[in-house]
Every structure is written in C-alpha cells, then in structure tokens.
Task: structure prediction
Amino acid sequence: MKKNNIPTRIYLTEDQIPTTWYNLRADMKEKPAPLLNPGTKKPVTVSELSNVFCEKLAEQELDNDTRYFEIPKEVRDFYKMYRPSPLVRAYNLEKALGTPARIYFKYEGNNTSGSHKLNSAAAQVYYAKDQGLKGLTTETGAGQWGTALAESSAFFNLPLTVYMVKVSYEQKPFRKFVMETFDAEVIPSPSMTTKVGQKILSENPGTGGSLGCAISEAVEKAVGGIETRYVLGSVLNQVLLHQSVIGLESKAAMSMIDEYPDIIIGCAGGGSNLGGLIAPFMQDKILGNNDPRIIAVEPSSCPSLTRGVYAYDFCDTGKVTPLAKMYTLGSSFMPSPDHAGGLRYHGMSPIISKLYDDGLLDAVSVEQTKVFEAAVLFAKTETILPAPESAHAIKQAIDEALICKETGEEKVILFGLTGTGYFDMTAYNAFKEGRMTDYIPKDEELKKEFDKLPKL
Amino acid sequence: MKKNNIPTRIYLTEDQIPTTWYNLRADMKEKPAPLLNPGTKKPVTVSELSNVFCEKLAEQELDNDTRYFEIPKEVRDFYKMYRPSPLVRAYNLEKALGTPARIYFKYEGNNTSGSHKLNSAAAQVYYAKDQGLKGLTTETGAGQWGTALAESSAFFNLPLTVYMVKVSYEQKPFRKFVMETFDAEVIPSPSMTTKVGQKILSENPGTGGSLGCAISEAVEKAVGGIETRYVLGSVLNQVLLHQSVIGLESKAAMSMIDEYPDIIIGCAGGGSNLGGLIAPFMQDKILGNNDPRIIAVEPSSCPSLTRGVYAYDFCDTGKVTPLAKMYTLGSSFMPSPDHAGGLRYHGMSPIISKLYDDGLLDAVSVEQTKVFEAAVLFAKTETILPAPESAHAIKQAIDEALICKETGEEKVILFGLTGTGYFDMTAYNAFKEGRMTDYIPKDEELKKEFDKLPKL
Result:
C-alpha cells in the first residue's frame, strides 16, 4: 500500500543530530588501499600526513578501525545552525511521474553555503583552530566547497586562502564575492603565487585551470606556510567520515516513518556526498542486515567509475600529493569546459572505489542535457532549484521511478539532494535556450591518460 | 534567567501549519481607509476590482470583517514543501554581541525562491487557476516576488508575464534566468509592450525604470489581456492576509518554548513581511492581551513611514491603479539607483500605514552601509547570508540587543529574516570594497513629490 500519510518533510529533533560520525571503513571486510608516499612508495604515516593536514584529521584519514568518532561539541553546536536537514517525500514529483514508487530526498541545500560541503568544512576548520594553526588553504571548483569553508573559517575565525579554478573564478564572480564576504582570500588558479602554478602557466599560458591544478597550488602553499595546513572537501576518507551525518540522519528519519530504501542514489564527483549518504546503509549491506541497491551517478563527461581504471594515481595535477588507489581518469585528465557545474574531478574516493570494485555499488553516467531536463522537472514540481551536481541523482531517481511505473513496483527510492543551483543560472540559461551540449570523452583520449599513470 | 536549553531551530510539525490566514483588519478598531476609484473618488467595489484581480482575491482585498480565511487544501499542500519555516534562536549572534537579550528570527529564506514571497504567490496563483484564468501578469523589482511567482505559476501550470524593473533586469541576469527556468516571460520595464511603457520611454528614453512603472505596465497588460489578471507581491491587504502564516507560525513556535517577544522587528518596503509577521502579535496588542513593541525598519533612501505623508496616492507611477490611503513619498518618487536590493517602493501597505498613524507601531530608517555591516556580522555568526532587505531588521535587532547590553535587560527580540542574499552579491562586493554609499533624500526633494499628490 502506498503510504500517503507521511509528512512531506520529516525532521529529526535537535537532540537527534548524531553525536558521532560513522567510519564505514571499520566494517569493510577489505579495507581501501592505503595512501602511498610517492617518493618511498610506502604507506604514508600520520606523522607524514601531519605536514599537510592538521593532526586529528591525519589520524582520521588513516584510521580504518575506529567505528565511531565523537563529533566535538563545537562542531555539533555549529551543526545546530542548519541541521538536522530535512528528509523530504517528493509527493509532487511522484505525481508528475505517475509512479507507484515512493521517492525521498535528503535535502542538504538547506543552509547558506547551499550544499552538504558545510558538514566537513566545519569539522576541518574546528580541528585546525583547536590545534592552534594560523591559516588554511584549499581549492574550489564550482565553488560549493570554497563557500562552505569560507563560512566555517569566518565562524571559527581562521584565515583562509582559496585557489579557485580560473574558469570558475571568471564565470562565477558571485561565488568569489560570497567567499570574500566571509573574509577568504580568493586566488584564480593557476597563479603566480606558487611554483607549480608558475610552471603550469609557463607551459599553458591560456589555461582555465583544473581542480587537480588548484589542489597542487593549495597544498604547496600550505606546506610552505607558517602553521598553515591544507583542507579538501571531497575524496578523502576524513571527508566521507564527516559526511556520514547525512546518512545517519537519513536512516534515522526513514526509520521514524517505518521506511527503508530499496534504492539509494547519490551523485558522485569525488564521492563526499555519496559516501556520506550511503555509509549506514552500506553497513547494513556489508553486515547482511539489509540489501539496498546503491547507485553512484557521474557525468558522462568525467566518468571515473564507469570508464576509469582502478589504479594508484596522484590526487592532483602537479603530483605533489600522496598516491591514492582509486578509479581514475588520470591526474592530467581535463573534463570538457562545456561541462556545467562540479563533479569534474579525475578520481574517486578510495572508499567508494573499493566498494565499487567489490561489487557493492553500481555506477552509471549521464549526459548533462538529460541532467538539466530532470533538474527543471524537479524544480517545477518540488519548488527546489537543484544544483547541477545534485540533479545527476535526480535524473537517476526519475529513471528508477519510471521503471517502477512499468513494473508496478512500489519501491522506496532515496536520493541525496546535495545543494541548490542559485550560482548555476548561466548553465540553466544555456539549457533553456538550447545551447547546452553533451560531451563524452573518446576511448583514445582516455587511453592516453591511462598510459601516463604512475608506475609502482 | 537566560534560557539556554532552547533548541537552536524550533520547528512546528506539518499538522501545525496554520489552516487559516488571520485577517488583522477584523480586529482593528479603526479600519484602514478604503481604496478609491480614481475616476469617481468612491470606494472601489469587488466587482470593479475583479477586472484587475481574480474574484476571491478581490473579495479578500476588501473584506475588513472576516477574521479567519480558510487556506485552500491545494495551497496548504504547496506550503508543505517548505513550511513550517524554522524559528531560530540566534545564540551565536547573542554571543558575539555579548547581550543578555534572547534573539529569535523567523527564517523565511528556507525555500528556493529565497524569500517569504512564496506564501502569497502560491495563494494568488492557486485562486487564479481555480477561477479558470489563462494568464497572470506582475512586476518585480529586486526579483524575489517574480521568482516566487514564477515557481508558483510553474507548479500550478499558469502562464506568467513579469515586468522586471530595467535596472534590475540588467544588473541581475541570474534572477531573470531563474524566472525563465520556471517558464515565466520576463520583460524589462519600461517596455514598448504597453501604452504606459511607451509614454514613459518617450519622456525618459534612458530611464532604468521603477517598481511603480512596472506595476503600471503589468496592470495595463492584465486588463487588456484575455482572462488575464494582475498579481502583486506586497502592499495589498490580501498579501498581508496570506503572509499572516509567518506570524501565526512564529507565535505558535514561541509559545512552544514558553516565550513571548518584547520587541518585534520587520523590514518594511511595501509591508508584506512586516504585516504578516506582526499580525497575531498586533492582535494581542489591540485586544489588550499583551503589549509588544513593534518596529518597522525602512531604508533611509526610501523612507515612506518616517518621512512620507499619510495621504491618498496612486500605487503606481502610471496612475492606473486605485487610490490607496497610505504613507507615501509620492508615486513618482524614485529612490537613488545606488540603493541596493528591494524596499524601494514609494508607499506603504494601507494596513501598516493605519497602524503606524494610530501609534501602534514604531518606524525607523537606516542607512545601507550600516545595514550591510549588520548583514556581514550576522552571516559570519549565524552562517546565513541575508538578503539586504532582511538585513534592515537584523540591524535594528542588533541595536536593540546592544541597548539590552547597556541596561542588563533580558528582552526577547523577534525579527523576520525574510530571505537570502544569493542574488545580491554585487552589493555585498561593493560594501566589502568600500564602494557603497548612503543616500538620504533632501526635504526639498520630498516636498516636490508631496505637492504632486492627487487632490481629493
């Protein structure tokens, strides 16, 4: 029977905000491959990582055993300003599709930073401040992470330098203005402020930059700075750990209405939202308590899971980071500049990569025109204008709901609505006016990148 | 004793969304002066108004007696997508100010339209659809109303034409793109599509337009269209009626935590948010059940309450609307183009005007640089980047909280946080870079406008 008496928005109470993050690695039967020091090719240690990350985060990064990490009181207090986020029943989307499926989304765009990135930003800034550091550096692509980090840095009063991919810096001045309003210094990348930036600029004077290149600059700046560390908004184990609040809240809220998802869908760039959303459900799957289908949705223009290789690679273009074993398109892969929004990272979270390699989750890639079509339908029916990134999950949720329409199955679909599209109106306009195109990299193009992967 | 065990966000449950709107006029001892037909100078009738507004709305506009109007089920279902909105305890702002006051804000920016305007937009579109109309016209200044109306029109599937003040149309292309994403037709005003637009353009070819002029065009288009009506996002009695959900929810949420505001603060342009927020509290005041201090905050560049006259005036520049008795700066008053954001309407809601004239509420005007200073402090402490309009209320709330710091009084302050500032980053940037200036109209300038008021 279709449950129609469920509230549209299901809110946990404040005292139901998780008090611990859940570390999925503790329950994985095979652990993700360790990060390697690119010089020695040996697993990196906490001490080595502590040059780049603050200590607590270095520990969290390498800890495959501790199942729960206590969320510091200061971070919980920060979370209270925008959490718990709502779990929403998409009644109007269901109606528009005529599906018997019940569609839910966990809405993380419900804060001014506009995305889920704030969950890890607050944690990372807090630990840095607590360690007595004097500054942070980071990179941002579409700008969601930079915005979230700027807000957190302003709140905890810690100086922040953001290397913003130049093409975004130029196309999205408003994103820059937001970060600057929160006192962040925003530098277009590649820049002359770092050696790696100087090198890239001398080789490609006209380049619009890339996320991998901005990472290289931010890391160099952090390692060279005084009591300065680097922070990253995705890919890392620590980030997925912090983002587990999304999944923990989702599971608790679904349990309140006596539901459990048959299908869980998340968009996947570096894996921060997907990893957080699925964590407690994947635990159920690994422990044999339940068997939801879990789907990662990536853009066809940057298809690391569906067309990449599972190999050790650098996390950045400049090759200054440790090596991570992940699904990758190669650290010098550049997605088409025509691709709108984020999800343009060459690799994928080592945790997600391992789960995918173990067959515990599925992956699909979708073309952006189809994604925006889904986004507009969603906006008109549910009144939320989604971020293009999030709309990848919407597209897949719609497809699954339409399959249910065919089969008559009343499946429960849960997807992550990671953010809003306020800063992506240029892309929405291009779609509306029919100027948006799709881009699928050719096999030869990918092969060329794979040939450049580091040899171990 | 300072209550520190109150949750940061207080949510009502879905079944606590009001089932009726509250019509403050029913409890006002003296009613607002009636709208007059500018030809006959007699009070307009429902039948006359029904040429401009759909019937139900014309009835609501003129009904001074019905205390509660049932909210149609379809509108309640729409509300469920984003209501109840949270009442938030601004713990971090209190801490930053070091005030013993308890500061609460009702947060209406919690939906994709980004403001409280959606509350009336959904109602107005629903009634138009229910009457079988074929289209709607409206105007928008800063863009909040147009966005909310476009979302509602897309949801209820009714064509919409928006006349957007030209200077905003040019400065805020993203606002336009949002409306277009929701299938609205957006026309910069003044335009050649109406007689009044043609006239204004012939007299002032280079004009950037004004809200009053855009209203004239939208009304002309509606009256001349087939089964088309005009809708307005502020000033009107019907709008304040719909916006009473803000106040009803606020009062219910405060009651849940055993609080009652000593001071209630709202920003005031046309009065839609202020009128909605204060409605049930003003009822208490009128009936002698309680005596909160109520404060309207307007920009010093467009000070209709604090420096205007209480007189009959046109609601638009083109003088096509009925005459309303209100505090006004004159229907041809144009606020400085340097003024950022909304709140640039020449008049004030007849209800608010009457309450102010009766001494039931206070009004203050503030300069925009001070407003942005407050906005940035709020953003950094509460992580919400406020709309410049809303920041007028924040500024006053901060001032009141600082007085409490002096006196040691633990007052309870409630203000309306009407929206977010995502589309106002140009203004934030100007403030950040010290390029923002203040503008206060000279007495002579205002006097010239007052001399032009219609003679009755």
Summary: Chain A touches chain B through 48 residues (CB under 8 Å). The mean pLDDT of chain A is 95.
